[in-house]
């Protein structure tokens, strides 16, 4: 005689222990204990049985269902804890593995050069003042003694924004701003971007940086200029650097010079490398700012920041500073 309840119980218990995930177990539960499914489906057979056998048959189905349910509950607990273990294992962090290295930025070579310039000149008592990059024609040229249409202005072809505003061509433009608001004595330095409408090559760019230094006090002479420039050059380029002056013209200085520093070559010979312009501030500029030239005089010098870095590190192309090529930048 067949025993459908016993058979189904055996199949159900085998399916419960064969389920390896909670999802599989949930399916087994539906298959054997669901409405009109499995053991419940067997209940339909009751009606076909002789009356006296019906209660016992029904009771056995209920017992079998209780056994299956109890097994499912047990299996649920063990699968849950197994799955949790699995998940913890999968998601565990191995702290002994080397970490992922984050790329670390660094200061641009021009920024480190500017820092050196600031600490050197700051240490010599110069106060740093910022001027605007978008400058008035007045401060960039007029106040600095450039007569209108003066040929000297051709050397500094400019990016004009309006008739009387331009991207500054030289940080010297700060002089008029300072002299318009301060009384001597003062020692001022400024550093920043300058722009010239210029054909770009290895030594010229349309965008570059300058540092300008000027002081006004009693009895300032070319000797003060040379002493200050020498100290600055020795700090930036090494202790045995000397400075050489040669006459040059800038409308805002009298006398005006260009200056070079001594540079020892690999074979021991000395070369002179040109750095920038300098001179004593033109008395007419001081007078224009109501500074008494019987009492006061001043010096000024300016130079390119790129030029300083190029000399110190033997860089032969100024365009590299604006290219943002890491192969270049990572060398410093
Ligand atoms: C001037 O700009 C004067 N203002 C310097 C000065 C200041 C003279 C105070 C007297 C008193 P110059 O045009 O020579 O001078 O420029 C000075 C330096 O700026 C140059 O030696 C160079 O290092 C840098 N420079 C000028 N033009 C460019 C450019 N197009 N690209 C890169 N660097 C430049």
Question: Can you walk through the features of this model?
Answer:
The structure is a single chain. The protein is an alpha+beta fold and 332 residues long. It is rod-shaped, with a radius of gyration of 44 Å. 41% of the residues lie in helices and 21% in strands. The N and C termini lie far apart (94 Å). Helix 1 (4-18) runs antiparallel to helix 2 (22-33) and helix 1 runs parallel beside helix 4. It has a 7-stranded mixed beta sheet. It has helices spanning 4-18, 22-33, 38-42, 54-91, 109-123, 137-142, 174-179, 222-237, 283-288, 305-313, 320-323, 326-329, and strands spanning 127-128, 134-136, 160-162, 165-167, 186-195, 207-218, 243-247, 253-264, 270-281, 296-304. The protein folds into 2 domains: 4-90; 109-329, Bira Bifunctional Protein, Domain 2 (BirA Bifunctional Protein, domain 2, 2-Layer Sandwich), CATH 3.30.930.10. Bound molecules: adenosine-5'-[phenylalaninyl-phosphate]. The site of adenosine-5'-[phenylalaninyl-phosphate] has 23 residues, from strand 6, strand 9, strand 10 and helix 10.
């Amino acid at each position: 005689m067949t025993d459908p309840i016993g058979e189904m119980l055996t199949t159900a218990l085998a399916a419960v222990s064969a389920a390896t995930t909670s999802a599989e177990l949930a399916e087994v539960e539906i298959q054997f204990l669901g409405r009109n499914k499995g053991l419940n489906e067997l209940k339909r057979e009751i009606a076909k049985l002789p009356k006296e056998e019906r209660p016992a048959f029904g009771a056995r189905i209920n017992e079998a269902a209780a056994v299956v349910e109890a097994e499912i509950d047990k299996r649920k607990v063990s699968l849950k804890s197994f799955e949790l273990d699995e998940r913890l294992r999968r998601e565990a962090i191995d702290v002994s593995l080397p970490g992922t290295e984050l790329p670390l930025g660094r200061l641009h070579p021009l920024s480190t050069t500017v820092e050196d310039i600031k600490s050197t000149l700051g240490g010599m008592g110069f106060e740093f003042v910022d001027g605007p990059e978008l400058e008035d024609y007045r401060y960039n040229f007029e106040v600095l003694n450039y007569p209108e249409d003066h040929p000297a202005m051709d050397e500094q072809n400019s990016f004009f924004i309006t008739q009387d505003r331009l991207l500054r061509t030289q940080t010297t433009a700060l002089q008029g701003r300072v002299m318009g608001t301060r009384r001597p004595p003062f020692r001022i330095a400024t550093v920043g971007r300058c722009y010239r409408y210029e054909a770009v090559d290895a030594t010229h760019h349309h965008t570059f940086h300058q540092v300008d230094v000027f002081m006004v006090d009693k009895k300032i002479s070319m000797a003060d200029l040379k002493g200050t420039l020498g100290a600055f050059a020795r700090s930036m380029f090494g202790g045995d650097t000397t400075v050489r002056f040669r006459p040059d013209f800038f409308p805002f200085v009298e006398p005006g010079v260009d200056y070079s520093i001594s540079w020892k070559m690999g074979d021991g010979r000395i070369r002179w490398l040109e750095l920038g312009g300098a001179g004593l501030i033109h008395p007419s500029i001081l007078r224009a700012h109501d500074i008494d030239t019987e009492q006061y005089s001043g010096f000024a010098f300016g130079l390119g920041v790129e030029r300083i870095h190029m000399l110190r590190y033997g860089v032969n192309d100024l365009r590299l500073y604006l290219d943002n090529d890491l192969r270049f930048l990572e060398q410093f």
